[in-house]
Design goal:
By secondary structure, the chain is of the alpha/beta class. The chain has two domains: 22-264, Spore Coat Polysaccharide Biosynthesis Protein SpsA, Chain A; 284-402, no CATH class. The protein has 15 helices and 14 strands. The protein starts with 6 loop residues before the first strand and ends in a 7-residue tail after the last helix.
Length: 409
């Protein structure tokens, strides 16, 4: 990494970017000062990977004139929105992942990283952790391992991780992150200026990488996942995350029906020791939401869920709050039934995903009651049991998926 830092002036994002070996998109840095400091930390972190490596820093094309004093990095303007909290490539050119892949392919980069961690947590070690496995060990996708508290990332823990693990056979818990590393092979598969037919619909990067037999690993970053906005609306999040996940699941059915068991992926780095135990949470509002939904959504749930599941849910509405528990096998079948209903379009898809929200809150209440006073390590063991249940119940999904009209559980 040699040479003087470049001075960037406003450039058309469609213009040919400078050639580089490593391209890093600082999606969590928004002002000129933040980009300048983020660039310095990235360059510091990548020293030692190779003296002859050149670095490009991708940042918003509307930053204006920007002098980067870190040395060894050129500015690559891209027209990209901040990344979502899940790695999906869409058809919109301003999608953060697609913009990175397009710029990386055009600049000839061997390795790319999208770093959504904000500058107050961004360390040189984050950049190195995301890119070293690609440069030194020829991995294709590097997934983050964050410092997790017991109640962090519950949508991922409840649905996304156990579902994708059961479907695609890889144990990758850090999927709803904002920091990832990618090889040139990934960029070639998921860019090509919108001509790629895959980009006509949302494409989940990790399932695509698994289907393409690419090499995937995890890297311990030593930072926490940025907190979601305070104004987050679960119905909207479910529509974005689970809606696209269920569509992707439908497109890949021939692949995931052949996967029979999961396996771990290599992990680089050592996670910090578990922190303080979880504080008790008032679960009554979540349980009340579930009980009310059982009365008000009965007609919708009857369309989506088999009678045995509805009977089990009715029993749950009658128990005392402190004894409220949603069994893992029941929850796995509920998620599978909603995925099937989404595929068959038995009701409006947005309404379907909205009807899953109170059931998710029931799972959160049950989980919170089980892990109160537990350490993050103990909570991880609890999630491992849930994932095992999703894998054990996968034959239920396969049978219903293949014969939705004939299979009556």
């Amino acid at each position: 990494m040699t040479g003087e830092a470049a001075v960037a002036t406003p450039v058309d994002p469609a213009a040919e970017p400078p050639r580089c070996d490593i391209l890093v998109q600082l999606a969590g840095c928004r002002t000129a000062d933040e980009i300048r400091e983020g660039t310095r930390r990235v360059v510091d972190g990548l020293r030692g990977l190779g003296d002859d490596l050149t670095i490009g820093i991708a940042c918003g094309s509307d930053c204006g004139a920007l002098s980067v004093d870190a040395g060894g990095a050129a500015i690559v303007p891209v027209d990209a929105a901040p990344p979502e909290r899940f790695p999906i490539v869409g058809a919109v050119p301003t999608d953060a992942y697609r913009a990175l892949f397009d710029a990386g392919r055009r600049s000839g980069a061997r390795a790319m990283a999208l770093i959504g961690t904000e500058v107050d947590q961004l360390t040189p070690g984050v950049a190195r952790a995301l890119l070293q496995p690609i440069i030194a060990d020829d991995f294709d996708v590097v997934v983050p391992v964050y410092d997790r508290q017991v109640y962090d990332g519950l949508l991922n823990a409840a649905i996304v991780y156990p579902l994708t693990r059961a479907l695609y056979g890889r144990r990758i818990p850090g999927q709803l992150g904002v920091d990832f590393g990618f090889s040139a092979r990934v960029a070639e598969r998921l860019s090509q200026g919108g001509q790629n037919p895959r980009l006509r619909r949302p494409v989940w990067i990790l399932p695509q990488a698994i289907a393409d037999d690419m090499r995937i690993c995890q890297a311990v970053l030593g930072v926490r996942l940025p907190a979601p906005p305070d104004s987050i609306d679960l119905a909207t999040v479910f529509a974005q995350v689970l809606g696209s996940l269920f569509v992707d699941m439908e497109q890949r059915a021939p692949f995931w029906q052949r996967v029979q068991r999961s396996q771990a992926v290599p992990t680089f780095g050592t996670a910090a020791p578990g922190r303080a135990p979880a504080e008790p949470v008032d679960v009554r509002p979540m349980i009340e939401s579930f009980v009310n939904a059982f009365r008000n959504l009965q007609r919708v749930w009857t369309i989506l869920l088999p009678p045995a599941t509805l009977v089990a849910l009715k029993r749950l509405t009658l128990v005392e709050p402190e004894r409220f528990r949603l069994p893992d096998d029941l929850w796995a079948r509920i998620v599978y039934d909603f995925a099937l209903g989404h595929r068959l379009r038995v009701i409006n898809r947005d309404h379907l995903l909205g009807a899953l929200v109170p059931l998710y809150l029931a799972w959160v209440a049950s989980y919170a009651l089980e892990v109160q006073g537990a350490t993050p390590a103990a909570a991880d063991v609890r999630i491992e049991r849930l994932c095992a249940a999703f894998e054990a119940e996968k034959p239920y999904l396969v049978r219903r998926w293949r014969w939705p009209d004939r299979f009556n559980p």
